[in-house]
Records
---
Amino acid sequence: MLPYNSFEALLSLSAIGLACLTLLLYGIYRLRHAQPDYQKIQQQGSSPFFEKELLILCYWAISPLDKICQKCAITPNQLTWSSLVSGGFCGLFIAKGFFAAAFWCATLAGIADVLDGMLARSIECQSPQGAVLDSSIDRYIDFFMLAGCCLYFSDNQYFLMISLAAIHGSFMISYTTAKAEAMQLTLPRGIMKRSERFGYLLVGLLLSALLNVFWQAKFPASLPYPLLVSVSIIALFANLSAVSRFWFIYQQATIQK
C-alpha cells in the first residue's frame, strides 16, 4: 500500500499528465478542424476571468463520453446523482486535507454535471424536472466543496470568514440569476459564474496537492496557499458580481414600476 504522500503524488502527477495529453490532442484536432461549436457555451459566453476557448476544450474532451453513455443506457439523472456523490466526497477530502483526491472527485463531479445535459440533449429527453434536479444538485455540490474549505480552515478565523464569504457570493449569484429569470429580465454577462468558480477551485486544489507533496518536507507547516487564493478570488469577485446583479435588477424593477 502506498503511503499518503506517494498516493497524493501519484494522483497529482496523473492529473497533470491527463491535462497535458488533453491539450496535445486538442491542439492536433484544431490543426485539422475548425473550432467546435457548442450551443451551451455560446449562450453562456465568456468573461474576463475565464476564456471561452477553455470551456470549449472541456466540452470537447467530455463529448466522447456522451456516446459511451448512450451505448451503456446511462440516463442523465443517473449522471446528475453521481455528480452529487462525487461532490460530497470532494468536500470530505478537502476538509481532511487530501487535496489530490479532492481534485479528482471534483473533476468527476464536473464531468458528470456537463455530461448529463449533453446526454439529455443528444437523446432528446430534456424536461423541466431534470432541469430542476440538475440546478439543485449543482447548489449542493458548490456547498460541499466550499464547506470543505470552511472545515479545513476552521482553525483560522480569517481564512474561515473568507471561505464563508465565498459560499455567500456563490449562492447570491445563483439567487440573483433565478430572480432575474422570474422577473423575465436578461442579466448582463457577469463574472464568477459557476464554471469559473469551479475552475478556480480545481486549480487551487491541484496546486495545493503539489505543494503538499513536494514542499511539505521542506515547509512542514505550510498552508495550501493556492486553494486559499482561489477561495479568496471567489469570495471577492462573486460578491462583487452579486452586488452588481442586484443593482441591475433593482434598477429594472424601478423602471417597470
---
Amino acid sequence: MPPPSHVERHFNYPAAALYVLVADVEAYPAYMPGWRAVRILHRTGNEAQVEQVVSLAGLRKQFVSIAYFNPPHRLVIQADGDLFKHFRLTWNFNEICTGITSVCAELELVFRSATMERLATHLMPDMLNPVVAALEHRAATHLIRSPPENKPESEANPSKYVAKSSSH
C-alpha cells in the first residue's frame, strides 16, 4: 500500500470561497488534472453519490464515490468497489487569519489490481501537487477581491472576495 499523499499550501482567499470551488465536484474535469467526467448521481443533505471518470497514466477508470460535505471546512470523497480497496481524498480548509487559508489535501488509495497498485506506488509521492496547483489557478481565475469601500488599502477587508463574472 502506498503511503498517503499530502500537500498543504496557504492561499490568499477565505476558506469559504475556496471550499465552494472544491465542493463543485462536477467542475473538476474543467480544471483538475486527470478528471475526465464527474456527475452527481444522487444528493441527500451533506452527502452525494458521485460518478467519476479519471485518467491515470493514460488509463481511463470509472468509479462511484460518496462525497461528504462539511462547509466551509472539509470535503471528503471516498470509494471502494471494483477499482479500489480504499480511496479517500480529503480537503481541509483552515482560515488562519482573515482572508488567508491553509488548504490541506490528502489522498489515500489502494487499488484491487496489483498492476494499478504498483503504478500508484510510483505516482503517489507527487500525485496531489498538480491537483492543488490547479485549485490555485482556479481560484486566481474565478475569485477576485472586492474593491475597498472608500478605505485606504491598509484598512480594506481582504476577506471580501466575489466570483468573477462570466464575461471575463
---
Amino acid sequence: MPEGALPLTTDKRPRKVGTVGQYWRLSGGFWRGVTARRAWLLTLATIGLVMANTGVQYGINRWNAFFFDALEKKQSNIVLSAIGLFAVLAVASSAITVLQLIARMRLQVYWRQWLTEQLATKWLADQRFYRLSIAAPDLDAPEFRIADDALRNLSTTMRRPKSWIRLGC
C-alpha cells in the first residue's frame, strides 16, 4: 500500500462506481420519512396507470378481432358499434397515457428535489465548500453539479424499469 493511502474500509472518498445498495441508501430515503406518502402515492399511481394502459391495449387487440370478424360477416350494425367502441378505447388510452406521464414526471421532480436537498446537506456538512475553495479555487459552482448529478441519476433510474419491462425481466 502506498505511503499515506488509506485502507479501503476507512477511505471515505467517493468512488466512481458504487453498489446498488449504496445508491438505494442514498436515494431510497424518498420513500421513507416525511416524503413517503407522496412518494408512494405517485409510485402506485404510476404502476396502476401502466396496468390500466396495458388493459386498454388488450381491449384494442380484442376490438381488432371483433371489428374484422363483423366486417367479414358483413354485420353493419356491429361494425358501427365497434367504431364507437374504438373511439372510447382511443380516448381512454390517450387519457391514461397523459395521466401516466404526469404522475411519472411529478414523481421524478419531487424525487429530484428531495435528492438535491440531501446531497446539498451532505455537501455543506464538515465545511466541504470551504475546503474545496482552498483545494480547487478555480472550480466554480459545485452546487449546480449536485443538481445536474441528481437529474442524471434519476433520469437513468426512471428509464431502466421501462427497459426491464420491455425485455420481460
---
Amino acid sequence: MRREQYKLHRNLDGIVMMDQPPSAVFVVDMIREEIAVREARRLKIPIVAIVDTNCDPDLATYPIPGNDDAIRSIRCITGVITESIAEAQAATGQQIPPPPETIQAAVAAASAPAAPAETPSPTGPAVEPSTAEVPVPPPASPTPAATTESAP
C-alpha cells in the first residue's frame, strides 16, 4: 500500500503543483512516453512529437518526422524548437527561463568531444592499428566468365 502511494506521489505531484495545464507538450519518443501522450490527449493539450516509423503520427497534433533514437537527430530538432521558442518569447517581450544546472551540465557533457579510444600505456607508446603491417592476399584469378569474349 505504501509503495503504491509512493509511486503515485512521485509520478503525479508535479501535475498537482501546476497552476494551469501546459499550452503544449513536446515528446521525443511517443512509444516510451505513451502515458504522457494519453494524458495530453485526454486533457486536449496539443502534442508536438518526433514521430519515427514505429509510431502512429495521428496521435500527435504536430508530428515531426525524424529518428527518435538518434541523439544527433534529437539535438538538432530540439535545438531548432528551442531557438524558435526563444525568438517568439523575445518578440512578445517574455523571458525564457534558463534551464537548470543539471540540464546545462548534461548538454555540455553530451556535446563535448569524445575521448580517444585508446590511452597511451605508461610503459611505452602504443602501436596504432593503422600503422601495423597487415598481410594482403594476392588478387584472385579472374573467373572464366569474365575472360571470355562474346562472339559477333
